[in-house]
Design a protein that fits this description.
465 residues, alpha+beta, 15 helices, 11% strand
Length: 465
């Protein structure tokens, strides 16, 4: 949960070790009770002994555990929301149903609900919209040309190891928060659980799998195995699923949370400086571009042959967007276990403390209703997710559109990679922490650069891609 009051706790409360043990014991008791009730229906060849009782395979037990844990998390979040509803100060954002209420309540995250004035809207469409539009137009055109040449053998695709790339997408993008722990059979293997996993099938229909599991060897940095529910997934398929999850379900959470770190309303000079105010307008309008406008281009991409017929009519991507935005954030209190295996985790864990420390020092420069956690997510986390998406997937043609099970998602994945992941050129305004001339952003950059200068150089002060 995100609460915009400056003194409120962060949007996620991590449990104690005691509560984790209690939850584990409770869930395992539930599973064992279910196993006893279903024991008469078990097939002898599909079972193994656990203790003195019959049980399903390890994968089935792991799947059940993840489902029960997710259910408990949802129930816990519901109870918290009933006791501590999200309060949104009207000076920062408003929804259509609450725009006249100065103390409105948000029941869930939303990517596109903040109102801007017409001059702000016109400014964004003048100085951002054209550059963004022509950028994806140019890159998508080049994608069509490359696909044509490759399909006719006139151009080759750079070789890649799908198993290594899968490991990179798990460790070096925001979906690293789905890290669950280490395998009991091999401590070098990290396990990632994605419950309620949205995807698009070969009929361009929105689907939800109960559990997507990926195992990564953190020493060799290669995929060990992957499963979508009870089906094994090859590295090439896991690559498509992870990339699609990033663009359609995981990354949109960052966009939605960022709304609580903005303030588009003009306030007194001592509480809202022009730099932060412009950042807020850019973030708000770009969220509108990404959520509301993106779907309008699909019919064109279908005509061009980049997307299969059905993407536009079925609106499957928007269903995946909403699924990702409305579902809770995967609990990741043990994420520090990956610090020595992930450059992203190492950087974020260290820089997060720097950000909050500097925010407290410069609190007087920002409106009171701006949430520091949301601001951190909408600036540093969001921009690094884009940067790493670009660095990790060097060639969009690595996504196999001919995959018989996951190929439709690869179609969209290619378009997003070329047209909507890299930096937008031609912008006249400054958008980086580095060289911002603002005391808060400059202070954060100076310290973050000592952790990882390459990452720090790519930290944006707003959502602008």
């Amino acid at each position: 949960m995100i609460r915009t009051h400056p003194d409120s706790p962060s949007y996620r409360h991590y449990p104690s070790l005691k509560s984790l043990r209690e939850n584990f014991t409770k869930i395992m008791n539930i599973i064992m009770q279910e196993e006893e009730e279903e024991s008469d229906d078990d097939n002898e060849h599909n079972t193994q002994k656990i203790g003195n009782k019959k049980s399903r395979t390890y994968d089935d037990v792991a799947k059940k555990y993840a489902q029960h844990l997710h259910q408990m998390n949802q129930e816990s979040m519901l109870q918290q929301s009933m006791m501590n509803p999200i309060k949104i100060n009207q000076s920062s954002s408003s929804s259509a149903s609450n725009k006249n209420n100065d103390n409105s309540i948000a029941t869930k995250l939303d990517m596109d609900h903040v109102y801007v004035t017409f001059p702000q809207f016109l400014w964004a469409h003048t100085f951002i919209g054209p550059f963004s539009y022509f950028f994806w137009k140019k890159n998508v055109t080049w994608l069509r040309i490359r696909q044509f040449l490759v399909n006719r053998g006139l151009m080759k695709v750079k070789p890649m190891d799908a198993s290594t790339l899968v490991a990179t997408l798990c460790l070096e993008q925001s979906q690293v928060i789905h890290y669950s722990g280490r395998s009991k059979d091999n401590s070098d293997v990290a396990v990632f659980f994605f419950t309620d996993f949205p995807y698009v099938d070969m009929n361009c229909e929105y689907q939800v799998a109960s559990l997507f599991t990926v195992e990564i060897n953190v020493v060799t940095k290669k995929m060990v195995s992957a499963k979508l529910d009870d089906k094994d997934v090859a590295p090439s398929g896991a690559l498509i699923l992870l990339w699609f999850n990033t663009i359609a379900a995981q990354h949109v959470k960052l966009h939605a949370m960022a709304n609580w770190g903005t303030n588009v309303k003009t306030a007194s000079a001592d509480s809202t400086d022009k730099f932060f105010h412009r950042n807020s307008i850019v973030t708000t309008v770009y969220n509108y571009f990404g959520y509301t406008c993106f779907h309008e281009y699909m019919e064109e991409w279908e005509r061009q042959g980049l997307l299969s017929i059905g993407w536009d009519a079925n609106d499957a991507l928007r269903h995946c967007f909403n699924h990702g935005i409305e579902r809770d954030v995967w609990q990741h209190s043990n994420i520090d276990e990956l610090m020595k295996h992930s450059k992203l985790v190492n950087f974020v864990v260290k820089t997060r403390g720097i950000f909050f420390s500097e925010f407290r020092k410069h609190r007087h420069l920002f409106p009171k209703n701006v949430n520091d956690e949301a601001m951190f997510i909408g600036t540093i986390l969001h921009s690094l997710d884009h940067t790493l998406m670009e660095w990790n997937l060097e060639d969009p043609l690595w996504l196999d559109v001919n995959d018989p099970v996951y190929g439709k998602m690869a179609e969209l994945g290619r378009i997003v990679r070329v047209g909507f992941v890299p930096d937008v050129p031609g912008l006249y305004f400054h958008k980086r922490f580095k060289g911002s001339g603002h005391p808060f952003y400059d202070a954060v950059y100076e310290k973050a650069a000592k952790v990882n200068r390459k990452f720090a150089d790519n930290m944006d002060t707003c959502i602008i891609k």
